[in-house]
Amino acid sequence: MPRGGMGGMNMNQIMQQAKKMQESLAEAQDKAKDLEVSASAGGGMVKVTASGDMQLKAIEIDPEALDPEDVELLQDMILAAVNDALTSASEAANNEVAAATGLGGMNIPGLF
């Protein structure tokens, strides 16, 4: 068996690659924070903007959506828009990480 046991790679090479991957990942996470995505619901009555680090940045509600007789509809539209925005933000952030680290197609939970 070759010395090092990893197809001829020594521990220094492995550590250097791990460090490079960690730096790329940190850089991608920083870039993801700057990403912003928007989603809307109710035909644009509610619009939500979120960042790649899963923070809500804005919620816009069309005044016509404010119907005191149907508050539940407005609540449903807000929930739908928030969930869509957060899903899109997560996908955008994962794409940023995949592009920076070469881990395309890997969903790494807990990164953001």
TrEMBL record:
Classification via Gene3D superfamilies = Nucleoid-associated protein YbaB-like domain
Stretches for region Disordered: 1-33
Q: Which InterPro entries match?
A: YbaB-like_sf, YbaB/EbfC
Q: Name one GO cellular component term.
A: cytosol
- The organism's superkingdom is given as Bacteria
As one GO molecular function, the record gives: DNA binding
Q: Which family does it belong to?
A: Belongs to the YbaB/EbfC family.
Protein name (database record): Nucleoid-associated protein E5334_03465
Write down the species. Muricaecibacterium torontonense
